[in-house]
Amino acid sequence: MTETLTEGLKRKLEIVVPASELDSRLSARLEDLKGRVRLNGFRPGKVPVAHLRRLYGKATMAEIVQELLNENARKTLEERGERAALQPSFDLPEDEGEANEILTGKKDLAYTMSYEVLPKFALGDFRGIKIERPIVDVTEAEVDERLQQLAKDSRPYEAKEGAAEDGDRLTISYLGKIDGEPFEGGADENAFVVIGSGRFIPGFEEQLLGATAGEERVLSVTFPENYGAANLAGKAATFDVTVKEVASPKDAEIDEEFAKRFGIESLDKLKEALRDQLVSQFGAATRQKVKRQLLDALDEKHQFELPPTMVEQEFNNIWGQVEQDMQRSGRSFEDENTTEETAKADYRKIAERRVRLGLVLSEIGEQAKVQVTDEEVQRALVDRIRQFPGQEQQVYEFYKNNPDALASLRAPIFEEKVVDYLLELADVTDKTVSKDELLAEDEDEKAA
């Protein structure tokens, strides 16, 4: 083994595995295979190894080479006392003739292993970080407001004769077309439209004013420039609509029976449930604000060299999402008062911050012996599976067979546990704020 590059966090090693070791491993593997393979014309366990070598030698040697790469990488890192930032990469002989000699055990395997090491850094003093925790006291007025909104959202409708008015609910079937051709996702046989709700494309609901049950109309609309489906954004469309029913809203009586409609035994219990929802919602927002302050403080206390490939991967993930969002919304960098070059520089800083904080949190968690249990990962997996109704088995198999995917469930649990550990050591001061103050989100928070 020869080290050919030590530059910052980058390492490159030349490694040679003698042909004798390759051939020895191949012989042992074929000998083991001899007792298990079944070939026509040979009794079990009596297939000559030379015959097996002709049939399976190259494929088996390819497996051995892959195992050796991983085995040598693990041993090398252990011996050097290094931790790779990402899986090492291997440069193998590309010449077909040379590769064939290696796979037949006639030539040494010489290859290059390249990797980046995790940086070694001293942790800044993270004890006593000052945190101002914004707290919202849930008032009766806020509970009543949520109750009134629930009553409005769940109010009953009653079929009526005559023309549709603002606030009425129409049951319709529709078929959407662009340039006279139906488009995917543009049809429904039993859709509810509440006029004035603003839940449909601008102009759609308004054109149903005055409609009556049984009436057919053709609506002309234009999809917004920032519409979620990029293939429809900004395009003119028509909708062939048949009105099946017109219904007017009725005021919901907020009483014991109203609560029972939601499977709750009494109105007081419903108010308790709504209060708990608000407490949970405000609590999550408080947690986010506190975590942001904590991460900002940690970021200020740590500056060290970052593994370039980790930063590049994080940047690519972020930038890919930015491009998708801009394509979906139909907006440009000029619309955001910036340029692509400036935006990339800004997002690269965010990628660097994420990588740096990830390494800092990991180091703190390791020193504090923070552990994530298998039960916690299993609960996270169950929650993830529930997000894909009808595909539960496929999602389960995906995570079961992909260690990296399973690790992606473990990572956020670990991070939150480290944050909890740090908050126990922080100097936290509570501050009562309004709901609007708590839920306000500035641009820095969005970026973070």
TrEMBL record:
It catalyses: [protein]-peptidylproline (omega=180) = [protein]-peptidylproline (omega=0). Keywords: Cell cycle, Cell division, Chaperone, Cytoplasm, Isomerase, Rotamase. It is an enzyme of class 5 (isomerase). One of its GO terms (biological process) is 'de novo' cotranslational protein folding. Its EC number is 5.2.1.8. GO terms for molecular function: peptidyl-prolyl cis-trans isomerase activity; protein folding chaperone; ribosome binding. InterPro entries: PPIase_dom_sf, PPIase_FKBP_dom, Trig_fac, Trigger_fac_C, Trigger_fac_C_sf, Trigger_fac_ribosome-bd_bac, Trigger_fac_ribosome-bd_sf, Trigger_fact/SurA_dom_sf. Residues 167-246 form the PPIase FKBP-type domain. It is found in: Cytoplasm. The keyword Cell inner membrane does not apply. It comes from the Bacteria. Consists of 3 domains; the N-terminus binds the ribosome, the middle domain has PPIase activity, while the C-terminus has intrinsic chaperone activity on its own. Belongs to the FKBP-type PPIase family. Tig subfamily. Involved in protein export. Acts as a chaperone by maintaining the newly synthesized protein in an open conformation. Functions as a peptidyl-prolyl cis-trans isomerase. This is Trigger factor. It comes from Prosthecomicrobium pneumaticum.
